[in-house]
UniProtKB/TrEMBL annotation:
InterPro entries listed in its UniProt record: SCO0607-like (IPR058119)
NCBIfam families: lipo_SCO0607
Protein name: Lipoprotein
Organism (species): Streptomyces parvulus
Length: 77
């Protein structure tokens, strides 16, 4: 089985990923619902689609603050 790789989707079908405001946590929300309190949608064009992809890795060290600005997470944050 060389050349095969299975990418794990960030969320299941019918869901979209959301980011914890001020932290690196994430969750999946049904498409017909808004993000829960304390979470926000990822900025357009910067949404992780698979575990370990470019944006999944990026959001391990960055977050969105209360004003919607992308900021680096403090060391150990």
């Amino acid at each position: 089985m060389t050349g095969c790789s299975i990418e794990e989707a960030t969320c299941g079908g019918g869901e979209y990923p959301v980011l914890s405001v001020g932290g690196t946590g994430s969750a999946c929300v049904p498409n017909d619902q808004e993000p829960p309190k304390g979470y926000t949608r990822y900025p357009e064009g910067k949404v992780p689609e698979h575990v370990g992809d470019e944006w999944d890795t990026y959001w391990q060290t960055h977050t969105v603050d209360e004003d919607g600005r992308i900021v680096e997470v403090p060391q150990g944050g």
